[in-house]
Structure formats: C-alpha cells, structure tokens
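Methods, example record. To illustrate the input and output format used throughout this study, we show the complete record for J domain-containing protein. The sequence lines were provided to the predictor; the line carrying structure tokens was produced by it.
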Amino acid sequence: MAKTKKRCYYEILGVSRDATADEIRCSYRHLALQLHPDKQAASGTLSTADATVAFQELLEAYNVLSDPDKRDWYDTHRPDAWSGNSLSRDFSRTPFFDLSPFFTCDCFYGFSDSGKGFFKVYGEVFSKIHSQEFYFARKLGLGLDPSPPFGNLYISYSQFRAFYDYWLGFSTVIDFDWFDEEDRYEAMCSWNRMVRDLATFVQRLDRRLVDLRRRKDREEYEKAREKARAKNKEIARMRNDGDEDIGLVFYGDAALNEMLVD
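The corresponding predicted structure is encoded as:
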C-alpha cells in the first residue's frame, strides 16, 4: 500500500480539538470495532493489508490523544506532527539518531522479525539506543546493564516482560555536555521521557501483549462459566430436594447466560 499524507489525529478519531477524554475513548472504541482488520477483510471493504494500516493509524492517534502529556505536546506542535517532521527537534544538536520516525505505524509492516517487520524495526531501534548509551558509559567510565533482547512473536512472557521493564524505566547515562550547562539536566530528562514514550508506544502495539490479554480474558471467561455451571448444578440439586425458591445464577454476559441455562 502506498503511504498517504499523515492525517490529523483528531480527524482520524472523528473528534473536535476540544474533545474530552471520555469522548476520545468512546470514539476510539466505536472505530476500533468498525476498523478491525478481521471485520474489514470479511466484509470486503478493504484488503487485509489496507485494513491493518488503517487500524494501526487509529491506534497511533489514540495512543497520543489519550495521554494528557502527549496530547499537550501534539497540540503545541501539531503542524510538525502532521507533516512527519521531527518529534525530537529539541535534540537537533545531539550526535545521535532521531527517534521521531518510530512514533508512527508507518515505519513497519506486519509483525515479523525480518525486513520491515515490527520486531525487526524496533529491535534495531532499541539496540541502537543501547549502543549509544554503551558508548557514553565507556567514555565516562560508567557501568551499564545489558539490554534484554526484543525478540519475536515466539519468545516467553518473562523474556519480553524483561525488555519492557528495562526500557519503561530507562535512565540515560549520557551527560549532554554539548548543551549549555544550565540546559543539560532538562536535556537528560527530555531524552529519558522520549525513550520511555517510545517503549510505551511500542508496547501498545506489541502483538504478544495483545494476544496475552486475549488469552487472559478467555481464561477468566472460562473460569466464570465453570463457576456459574457448578453453582447452578448445586441450585438444581437443591430444587430437586424441594427448595423451589432458589433461582439460577446469571451474569452480565448474555452469551454466557444462554450457555448456562441450556
């Protein structure tokens, strides 16, 4: 699919610039159901590839506008954000690479660990960040913990959890001595925030965590169903023993209730 001009996040979510957090959340949930790639592909409205890109665009918009700090930054720098210019222009004097191209779903395609896949692209990005840290740590005579690998779709939960624990708690060793002395601390804090924000952005897109949440939801659903069935068997037994005043247990899930009373 050819890349299109970057759209305004408010336009993507179909809300006004003064929309409340609840309005943004409600619009996102509504659009997420409409634009889910499986639904789009099944209806023939969009190809799987185009539907995936549209859904990723929605996730990106919600990731920014649902976070007060990111939304405030976006509102302040909105023309730059639309045109795809640097999100990190405060670091124009830094000797290392720009992270801004990686705060968008346009930088990867699919979830493989090769080519332009999600795991390949972001694995290399965080490896480069760590290499920069290692360079400055060695230059300054400081120690530096190794970075856990980003991995792929098939590594264990503990492995990719270690990766996010490391980067969500990132604290740079770089001294930013090319900044004016009074600006160095702010530069350090800004770089920490930028790297942590990137880790948060990546985490929200990570298929491993999405799949994990789905499995947990399914397990909770199954536990609730088994618990309700066991309770209703006990109620049925008590009814057979002559207690007619006991009713069945019902839950908020209509589909679950239908299964339980069959």
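Annotations derived from this record:
The longest helix spans residues 207-240.
Confidence is low (pLDDT under 50) at residues 79-93.
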